[in-house]
Amino acid sequence: MNLSVLILPGDGIGVEVTAEAVKVLKQVAAKYNHTLNLTEGLLGGIAIHKCGTPLPQETIELAHKADATLMGAVGLPEFDNIAPEKRPERGLLGIRKVLGVFANLRPVRTYACLLDSSPLKNERIEGTDMIIVRELTGGIYYGTPRGIFGEGAQAHAINTMAYTRAEIERVTRVAMSLARNRRKKVTSVDKSNVLENSQLWRKVVVEVAAEYPDVELDHLLVDNCAMQLVLNPRRFDVLLTENMFGDILSDEGAVLAGSIGMLPSASLGEKRASGAWTGLYEPVHGSAPDIAGQGKANPLAAIGSVAAMLEYTFGLGKEAAAVNAAMEKVIESGRVTADLKPAGPPATTSEVGDAVASLV
């Protein structure tokens, strides 16, 4: 197969972890006789420095041409106090919009050998294995009107949380389809006791779920869900939620996995005629400029994002499984970065990447 992939390394440790993910992708292509066509573009702070915008037109064009996009983290401290529309993160929201990706999949799994890396009790988190499905193009992050208006005592801010039936239906179908190949349970998260937006969310989810009689559906209010994620994470199989709730809850998953450096993600759009998902793949973590360039960053989330790409966009289940198995062997070996609290000296970012590539 010809694998056409756009690489957007981004800022900070994004550059380092993406390089290791590409290393593993090249090894997969070589071992399984795939042709790999890689292009590279600018996104985030580096794009602002070089092009004056966090999402250059050239990057948009490259993204449309590629089958899938692999992205690093974006963001730099120097942009923290400027207008939101000029920050590196605006490029991230923009590329999601450009590609039309609407369902963000964030798997959260605990490994037996990493239980001590979590601050929670081992017996509470052992056996956790869930996918958080976050709606990605609607909700308060994109709703209008929005902005800060007035000055002094008259200053006020507005953000609009908006969803359409169609947006809720399509992400619900993704969650239900995933559950059919797992433990056949979907937990939908909302705040329907307070928000009309959530009341529509729950109504539409219930209606779509009727099309999947083999999948069990239950509902949790978002505040209760946040609590249950740390009290009883094994109760979750597929967790379905809107944009902002999913953003917050999925980062809570880092506590379960032992490190945010363990959380990959896949953002999926409509299926192409070939049956492949349009996909944007990235680690959940940020750009961590405080450790950038020091070889301390954990590349496993970025490498896990490559495994997701192989599975969802290219339909290469065997290759995806090989990457996941290689990562698990490296984790079990203890040759991991410092965030995973290894028994011996921590491995560097490139050493972890080399180890995974050698085991694929």
Write up this protein:
By secondary structure, the protein is α/β, with parallel strands linked by helices. The two termini are 18 Å apart. It has a domain at 2-111 and 258-359: Isopropylmalate Dehydrogenase. The protein contains twelve helices and twelve strands. The longest helix has 19 residues, at 13-31. Helices cover 41% and strands 21% of the residues. The protein is globular. The relative contact order is 0.16. The strands form two sheets. The protein has a ten-stranded mixed beta sheet with strand order 2-1-3-12-11-4-5-10-8-9, sandwiched between helices. Strands 6-7 form a two-stranded antiparallel sheet.
In short:
The chain has 360 residues and is an alpha/beta fold. The chain has helices at 13-31, 45-51, 57-65, 88-99, 122-125, 165-180, 196-209, 222-231, 243-257, 300-312, 317-333, 349-359, and strands at residues 2-8, 35-40, 68-71, 103-109, 129-135, 143-149, 156-160, 185-190, 216-221, 238-241, 264-271, 277-283.
Question: Which structural traits does this protein have?
Answer:
360 residues; alpha/beta; Isopropylmalate Dehydrogenase; ten-stranded mixed sheet; 12 helices; 41% helix
- C-alpha Rg, in Å? 20 Å
How many beta-strand elements? 12
Look at the structure and name the CATH superfamily of the domain at 2-111 and 258-359.
Answer: Isopropylmalate Dehydrogenase
Strand content: 15-25%
SSE map:
Layout (H helix, E strand, L loop, with lengths): L1 E7 L4 H19 L3 E6 L4 H7 L5 H9 L2 E4 L16 H12 L3 E7 L12 H4 L3 E7 L7 E7 L6 E5 L4 H16 L4 E6 L5 H14 L6 E6 H10 L6 E4 L1 H15 L6 E8 L5 E7 L16 H13 L4 H17 L15 H11 L1
Parallel strand pairs: 1-2, 1-3, 3-12, 5-10, 8-9, 8-10
Antiparallel strand pairs: 4-5, 4-11, 6-7, 11-12
Helix pairs in contact: 1-10, 1-12, 6-7, 8-9, 10-11, 11-12
